[in-house]
């Protein structure tokens, strides 16, 4: 090879290397932008929920006895006090009965570490737990640590989690969440509501589940089953918003029972109190449930 040919070849190689480097830098800039935007969304969400977070944290730290005192300070009317006492008594009855048929209950999602549960909860949005458990092993086989996922390309994550639906947004949130865990919390999942809500893709429902199932703290997980059954039973009245249902349930549930009770509502909602065809005649709560009493009375 002549000297001029070698120079041309070296020039072509340098051009290829430069182009590859530019492409890589562009990809890094895109991923940094995605993560930055996810952080901004998380901060905005945290600010919007600021007042609710403060109220929820205060109520959880007080315990049931102190919540009663707080209710008295609000100067409840006699009718409101009677309704609150009725709902608290109803809650204790439901807790006792559901314990009998669902003694050992927990989330159906499979996880070995808290960060894996965070990922599973994000994937579970508009997806079944069964499908999530089928997808996550493949993700962890390729990216087995928080750091590995934080460094993975969003497109690679999306390709794996695509079967769970909403692949692009879920992949972005998962990468941003793991990046924040790695860079801010040294791969440790925080154990407070405020910090959990700062993580991209984490809402109050997921944060409560982490607090209850991972850290053993009082928690109220208001998923669709919990909201449906709480309204049917009469623990809340015509409230559909998760945050409002959570707030009302904190008033009537003992701290020590709250997390497990919400899991038992999920179990009962799947086995007996289904959305479309509830089996009121076979329900252990049918004599205290407002909806069940209406249905059984109408059938007579």
Which terms summarize this structure?
300 residues, mainly alpha, Endonuclease III, domain 1, Endonuclease Iii, domain 2, 2 domains, metal ion binding, class I DNA-(apurinic or apyrimidinic site) endonuclease activity, DNA damage, DNA repair, EC 4.2.99.18
Please sum up the structure shown.
With 300 residues, the protein is an all-alpha fold.
Count of spatially separate domains: 2
CATH class label of the largest domain: Mainly Alpha
The whole-angstrom Rg is: 25 Å
Helix proportion: over 70%
Mean pLDDT: 87
Helical segment count: 14
Largest sheet: none
CATH architecture of the largest domain: Orthogonal Bundle
Number of strands: 0
The CATH superfamily of the largest domain is: Hypothetical protein, domain 2
In sequence order, what are the helices and strands, one letter per element? HHHHHHHHHHHHHH
Overall geometry comes to: elongated
Oligomer: single chain
Give the amount of beta strand, in percent.
Answer: under 5%
Low-confidence stretches: 59-64
User: Which class best fits the helix and strand makeup?
Assistant: mainly alpha
Q: Cα distance, first to last residue?
A: 100 Å
Query: What name does the CATH topology of the largest domain carry?
Result: Endonuclease III, domain 1
GO molecular function, one term: DNA N-glycosylase activity
Binding site for [4Fe-4S] cluster: 273, 280, 283, 289
Catalytic activity: 2'-deoxyribonucleotide-(2'-deoxyribose 5'-phosphate)-2'-deoxyribonucleotide-DNA = a 3'-end 2'-deoxyribonucleotide-(2,3-dehydro-2,3-deoxyribose 5'-phosphate)-DNA + a 5'-end 5'-phospho-2'-deoxyribonucleoside-DNA + H(+)
Family: Belongs to the Nth/MutY family.
